[in-house]
Design brief:
With 178 residues, the protein is an alpha+beta fold. The chain has one domain. The protein has 6 helices and 4 strands; from the N terminus they run H-E-E-E-E-H-H-H-H-H. A 4-stranded mixed beta sheet has the order 2-1-3-4. Helix 2 (74-86) packs across helix 6 (161-172). The chain is globular, with a radius of gyration of 16 Å. It starts with 5 loop residues before the first helix and ends in a 6-residue tail after the last helix. Residues 11-22 and 24-70 have low confidence and may be disordered.
């Protein structure tokens, strides 16, 4: 469909690509570590050949799922934008007592903080992605390590390989707040 006004075309294209998943709690009665649906702010969406773009450097690829960080490095420039684009339930609120409303709040809620679903594991164990509950929630292996709930992001495609690599590399690098 073609629209004469580029802003209208971008807005409609973005709205048409949003998932219909709600931010309802998962089957762990509000204990979710990381809920998500795509949000329409600061992302690029591609569906059926139409593309809408904004200035954030984030893209959503419906074929691989998830958002791909495109413009920064480190936590604030590469990792937090993945959370911001994919974890809208946690950006807007704090299901599972995990608020990702901004970069600093998210960092404080993730790094060195015991998971509410598996207290033996930190959400992010700096330097040790394999023992970071966040990685298990995103990979869908959380039940294998004694966790609960559903894979995140909930109700949408899993994060892309590129996004998982970005998060894993950040954790393995000591999870610095840079």
């Amino acid at each position: 469909m073609t629209y004469r006004h580029p802003l209208l075309a971008t807005l409609l294209s973005t709205l048409l690509t949003l998932p219909l998943a709600a931010c309802a709690g998962d089957d762990s009665a509000g204990e979710s570590e990381s809920d998500a649906t795509s949000d329409s702010t600061g992302s690029t969406s591609t569906t059926g050949g139409s593309t809408s773009t904004s200035t954030s450097g984030s893209t959503t690829d419906e074929t691989t799922g998830g958002s791909t960080s495109g413009g920064g490095s480190g936590y604030a420039g590469a990792v937090y934008p993945i959370f911001s684009a994919n974890c809208s339930c946690h950006v807007a609120g704090s299901p599972g007592n995990l608020s990702l409303k901004d970069s600093l709040t998210a960092y404080a809620a993730l790094v060195g903080v015991p998971s509410s679903q598996n207290g033996a594991m930190d959400r992010v164990a700096a330097g040790d992605a394999a023992n970071s509950y966040l990685i298990h929630k995103l990979d869908g292996t959380h039940l294998d390590v004694g966790g609960s709930g559903v894979q995140m992001p909930q109700g949408v495609a899993p994060l892309s390989t590129a996004d998982m690599t970005t998060i894993t590399d950040w954790i393995e690098g000591g999870a610095p707040n840079d």
